[in-house]
Amino acid sequence: MGEMEENYDVVVLGSGAAGLTAALAAAVQGARVAVFEKAELIGGTTALSGAGIWIPGNKIAARAGIEDSQEQGLKYLLSLSNGMILPELAEALVDGGPQLIDFLEAHTEIRLQLVPGYPDYHPEHPGGLAGGGRTLEPALVSFSGLEDWTARIAGDIQRIMLVEMPLGGAPEWSHLRFWPNAPPPTSKDSAGRWSAACSRHASPAASRWPPACAACG
Ligand SMILES: Cc1cc2nc3c(=O)[nH]c(=O)nc-3n(C[C@H](O)[C@H](O)[C@H](O)COP(=O)(O)OP(=O)(O)OC[C@H]3O[C@@H](n4cnc5c(N)ncnc54)[C@H](O)[C@@H]3O)c2cc1C
């Protein structure tokens, strides 16, 4: 039987965040799942995005001491909608966010983290948060563990400096994905100098910005 004639319990069209999350949800419940992607590379718009995920009342913000609730998040959404939103969809989004965090932690290596201080876009609205807490992002994911899949993922794998990013600007690399040809995460020493461990040269060297191995240049 040809591959296209096989039977699946669930067929997902598209390999962006929505498709892959749906595929994973079906697979962990025992379904035989196939994902079909019409583009040459997988990831869709998701692979090009900033990867910020808006989840009001999440446990990661709570751990950071931020006061928030799903009720406040829902109030905020409704305040923005001019009465045109379907309340049940807004409720599903707000209710499902914390469940998504738990689901990803249980079934993947993805760990979401706070984007510190990132405010709601309209914090002046009822339920809005000015000091951040609802926008999360994935922690670094090493492409080296993806082996053959690395070349099949959409997106620009050129090195970029965080200072070039419109929304970032924090002097840490923690908001960058770990592309295979990007430098490893960096750190500051007690003298405040940046350093980067190099995978090709035995002794980590550097102490300048942008951090780089002195031997590699
Ligand atoms: C530069 C940029 C930054 C962004 N930053 C953020 C952000 O920080 N936070 C945020 O929430 N949103 C952000 N967005 C928006 C966000 O990326 C999208 O809303 C989200 O990725 C959509 O996910 P998706 O899974 O629905 O679609 P996609 O990720 O686009 O995936 C759809 C996939 O389906 C495939 N497909 C379509 N039709 C078929 C078919 N018939 N058969 C098979 N495959 C098919 C497509 O080729 C594609 O791969 C950003 C967008 C851009 C462009």
TrEMBL record:
GO terms for molecular function: oxidoreductase activity. The keyword Iron does not apply. It comes from the Bacteria. The keyword Oxidoreductase applies. Keywords: FAD, Flavoprotein, Oxidoreductase. SUPFAM superfamilies: FAD/NAD(P)-binding domain. Pfam families: FAD_binding_2. Its cofactor is FAD. Gene3D superfamilies: FAD/NAD(P)-binding domain (3.50.50.60). Residues 9-114 form the FAD-dependent oxidoreductase 2 FAD-binding domain. This is FAD-dependent oxidoreductase 2 FAD-binding domain-containing protein. It comes from Phytohabitans suffuscus.
